[in-house]
Amino acid sequence: MSIEQSYQLAKAQYEKWGIDVEAAFDKLKQVPISIHCWQGDDVSGFEVDQQELSGGIDVTGDYPGKATTPDELRKDIDQALKLIPGKHRINLHAIYAETDGEKVERDKLEPKHFQNWIDWAKKNELGLDFNPTLFSHPKAADGLTLSHPNPEIRDFWIRHCQASRKIAEHMGRELGSPTLTNVWIPDGYKDTPSDRLTPRKRLKESLDAIFSDEIDEHYNLDAVESKLFGIGSEAYVVGSHEFYLGYALKNNKLCLLDTGHYHPTEMVSNKISAMLLYSDKLALHVSRPVRWDSDHVVTFDDELKEIGLEIVRNNALDKVMIGLDFFDASINRIAAWTIGTRNMLKSLLYALLMPNEQLKKYQEEGNFTDRLAVLEEFKTYPIGAIWDYYCEQMNVPVGTDWLNDVRAYEEKELKNRK
Ligand SMILES: C[C@H](O)[C@H](O)[C@@H](O)C(=O)CO
Ligand SMILES: [Mn+2]
């Protein structure tokens, strides 16, 4: 049976529920996913005096072919984008600056150091997002940055974040789409703190200083990302969820929820509707924690489907800025991007093809039997046939055909790398 025939049969099944599949495609086409560049080089970046990855995060695996230059990384992203339907955004960290072999301290970074990324993004009609990098640096060696007791270290990181927002604003202006600048810091303590408040006061003051710079919101939006624990900050993290939720609400910033940054049974999907009652926008780092914040490649699992459903049901496709955050060096890195991003999109399609109004009605009527029965039934509806057709229509490989492209690219490009 052809892709078209399978699609027509599947479509008819959804149509019985009054679901408009073509309308779902039209909506999905409009959703940009912010694809993180750091999956391509194991969060290394291109600083002249590159440091070991720090900040309590870790990448495991030694799959050959990682990008070691900006051109290689862009080439790899180009390849992944050929396999992912739709128009998307690329999320950069400050350590991906290009400084022509010159050592430029992070607080001295300027838009010109990202010009190649901007030109490339323009050419490929991509948006860019940005992150100051407050780890993998001697001034973050003790795991403290914006909350550091030493004002000189704090000020250094404040200046880095201020510089980052200016770079981001420039990117947003150049590309005609606001850059989301996300601040994540590793600050915390391995063991039980004797004072939880003072570091949080200092972090608050540092953030106030960073955001006191006037930046045009047409070109830059700010987000703050919390965390529960990291390696070396097991007992206490300064920028906890409550800290940033409060900060974001009070200061009109976006709260960024990373799906790996909560207790194992605490689900980000359950937070979206609550937070949207109080914020116009929020941001996500969709990741997959396996036993800890392990940043595994996103799979089409129950939580991913639930996240898709929450975004769609709450009419929030333009309110939730979806970014990805995983880094797996044990598999082909282009495959990692492709699998994770396609899954994110598939979860949105899955959600767009649910009889959401009917299900809501069942719940309002107290009809929990039908709610459960229909929710279960749709788990095995032929989403695969619809997704395949969507991929074909969007001119990207269907099914696992993209693996052939990845293998060919591996032979031609990745295997020649050091
Ligand atoms: C590299 C990212 O900025 C980093 O992963 C951060 O977003 C995070 O999630 C730390 O755990
Ligand atoms: Mn994250």
Automatic annotation (TrEMBL):
Q: Could you tell me the EC number(s) of this protein?
A: 5.3.1.14
One Pfam match, by short name?
RhaA
Name the principal localization, coarsely classed: cytoplasm
Q: Name one GO molecular function term.
A: manganese ion binding
Catalytic activity line of the entry = L-rhamnopyranose = L-rhamnulose
- The broad enzyme category this protein falls into is isomerase
Subcellular locations according to the entry = Cytoplasm
Natural source organism: Natronobacillus azotifigens
Q: What is this protein called?
A: L-rhamnose isomerase
Cofactor mode of binding and number, as noted = Binds 1 Mn(2+) ion per subunit.
Q: Where does Mn(2+) bind?
A: 261, 293, 295
Keyword annotations from UniProtKB, A to Z: Cytoplasm, Isomerase, Manganese, Metal-binding, Rhamnose metabolism
Q: What does this protein do?
A: Catalyzes the interconversion of L-rhamnose and L-rhamnulose.
Q: In which pathway does it act?
A: Carbohydrate degradation; L-rhamnose degradation; glycerone phosphate from L-rhamnose: step 1/3
What cofactors does the UniProt entry give for this protein? Mn(2+)
Family of the protein in this entry:
Belongs to the rhamnose isomerase family.
InterPro entries reported for this sequence:
L-rhamnose_isomerase (IPR050337), Rhamnose_isomerase (IPR009308), Xyl_isomerase-like_sf (IPR036237)
